[in-house]
Request: fold
Amino acid sequence: MAGAAGAGAGDRADAPRPKTAGARPDGAGERAGEEAGASGAAPARARATSAGTAGDAAAPGRADGRAPDDGDAEDRTLDALGLAGVPREQPLLYPGAWPRESGLLVGDRLLPLDLPVHEDRVPVLAIGSNASPGQLRHKMAEFGIESPIPMVRSRTTGVDIGVSAHVSRMGYVSASPVRAPGAVRELFVLWLDAEQLAVIDASEGVPMAAGNFDRAWLPAPDVRVEPGDGTVLRGVYAYVNRHGVLHDGAGAPRRHPGEQRPLLTELLRGSARLRELFGTTPEEFCARARADRGLCERGTRLFAEERRVTASGLERYVDSGRTDEPLPPTPPPPTAPMP
Reply:
């Protein structure tokens, strides 16, 4: 994996153009923990190295996936770091624990990362649980993907974290990016290869007509992303919600509180009809949503019927970020379950 060279991703005017994996998933059945199902072509099993060839001097880790100076004395497992939780399995954990600093996710370990820009990969801004190493590991393991993922903490201006206007089949109400000129947040940029990108696309429902998200290219200077090496990326991908986002009561996108329990408590308190569908507690909400896809769809429609929904402000970028432009589409398997 190449580092931040002069013609790197931070210097390109256009969105990256990686090849899209074409293999289908094996055994990718419908399950309660899937947000968008096994849609999109699931990647073939990746190599354990982060670059095309093991031992590439420009790769962020060695041929065995370890960073050069990670050391054996320090326990860098996700369990030891408190990052192993999986919101897809325990929805009240959403959005999951985020790292304190940049790192290289290799299996169940988060290793030190030296290079903040990887020109042969695609930069994807993580807004919710995609910044959780435990969640990422879970998504990749579902398709047998073992290649490392650079996670780069970046100063991001122009985007904030809103609340999705849909009820996820995994039992939570997720985060969605919203346009916020001047807002500054510390967010993570995932540098994904084509196989990893196909997995994340599928988890967000991008290849599906009834999916919940589109992948959009957010260009600078509209969105300014500084990975910490003195450069500014020319843009990043982000997943924009097709349903819109919830507003704050005054028409502006509401901010996600960062924890699921207080969000669900407030949403249930504010709607008798929502309580009729999902119960009166966050635990009931999660359990009922995970057990009934149709109920999730009714809850999503209810948000719109009760006029709780507004635009994210990022919809205008969707056409430039769909998988058919500038990236070729990855068709879902014929038996892919709906999100």
